[in-house]
């Protein structure tokens, strides 16, 4: 669902009035003051994006946990949410999905405490995840970006193009292995690193694509973002896969939703624009922080084995949420 559609649906839904509720609608996860700590919760459900059920379960778990990591929280436990076509798929397929989720949550230092399963026409798997932020640390929202801040990304974009190619049976074995490894990578180390510096805003890159999530930060912080396309990291084969037809409905939904909020100062190809709107699953973090903190963060990330790139900066609010310079290729 496009974010504009969701806003329309929720326009008449009352906003909870609770001083302990730090954030809810419009954030990656809710934050709730509980005693001296902050409880953080989110729920995410996805359909299969790879053929292997174990990998699907692990990716879904990593994807759900990213909402906690983007807010600066440690994970505690998760609850499975499963839709399964028991009449058309063997139960060992379901077992492998759950096993993948359990082991990925375990890698995060948490556990799955239960859940709920329904009969469905196609497989779906996700989790309601709960974490906490220790006393003295902050719940990192999307609305704190300030002019002059740097923008750091922790994973290359384009995994939606790869998974579309997997679905179309056009991705080779190496491409499948590359994208699965990236999606199964937890954002835990990136989250731990960013908590050691002065972060102003953060979100994880998922279904709205890079530009959609930059728009969220710009809109909530009432600023604009200058994006250097030359510095945006992407998976190596995205353009060859795009030219072979690996485009998705979600990609074009994002393009339709956010295109009027972006100004390109140089000409970009259709494929470059599609990449910027590519919906991600278990994408990286977008971390916004003062320029003089960015090098410190990148060093911390590098020491933790996380590759990162400074892809732009925050500027004073203008008529466009995102203004690009240069081209990707």
UniProtKB/TrEMBL annotation:
UniProt KW Hydrolase keyword: no
Matching InterPro entries: PurM-like_C_dom, PurM-like_C_sf, PurM-like_N, PurM-like_N_sf, SPS/SelD
Pfam families: AIRS, AIRS_C
Keywords: ATP-binding, Kinase, Nucleotide-binding, Selenium, Transferase
Keyword Transferase tagged: yes
Signal peptide positions (record): none
Biological processes, Gene Ontology terms: selenocysteine biosynthetic process
GO molecular function (one): selenide, water dikinase activity
Top EC class for this record: transferase
GO cellular component: cytoplasm
Protein EC: 2.7.9.3
Domain of life according to the entry: Bacteria
Protein name in the entry: Selenide, water dikinase SelD
Native source organism of the sequence: Bacillus infantis
